[in-house]
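Task: encode each sequence below as structure tokens.

Item 1
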Amino acid sequence: MFGDLMGMMGKLQEAQKKVEETKLRLDTVLVDEQSNDGLFKVTLTANRKIKSIHIDDALLEDKEQLEDYFVLVMNKAIEKATQINEAELAAAAQDGMPNIPGMDMFK
């Protein structure tokens, strides 16, 4: 019984390590998003950290339009980054999970 418990604990620690490694790797996965006309561009990591923003000079003359572009493009980029982040972390966690009866919610 204790051998099984120790084995499960080892697998849980291994799963946790995989998740932490995945989090670090997601800092290097870049997500690019831009407005339909290409006047506003943003790059985020899959951990949702902003790496760069490009604003075309044409947007600098209209504060309200720039704010609208910023909100729309950032929300799309964050949504993409979140999808990648959640999928990768779920896969890392599921891969290392021991087979515990009743814990099939991770499948």
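Item 2
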Amino acid sequence: MRAILSSLVLLLPFLSQPAAAQDASAGERSFAKCRACHQIGEGARNLVGPELNGLIGRHSGAVEGYSYSAANKNSGLTWDEATFAEYIKDPRTKIPGTKMIFAGIKSEKEIKDLTAFLKQFDKDGKKS
């Protein structure tokens, strides 16, 4: 019994730690990987890739004026956090035939942080 209690005492600091929170500031730094092809914020425009304002909740292939691949337009996806996480890990696996050429982000923490950064911007690029 004493060994069990000793083990529990050692584990208490870890059990009381909250799950890693999303860090929008770290996500902004991660967005540097996206910046060559995408813009976000007020005045954002389509580049090689579509602007990303209001991404979470938006249907895939829906940014006006951007020429999407048929695969992306017809994917039927709505971007939520889980769908975006799957996509950004390996875009060509999630949407075969996408035009997006990106190796992906493998770190779960980095994906969560990037998502937190993107979620700050509404469809008009206003930061909440």
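Check on item 2: The first helix runs from residue 2 to 15. Residues 3-19 have pLDDT under 50 and may be disordered.
End of task.
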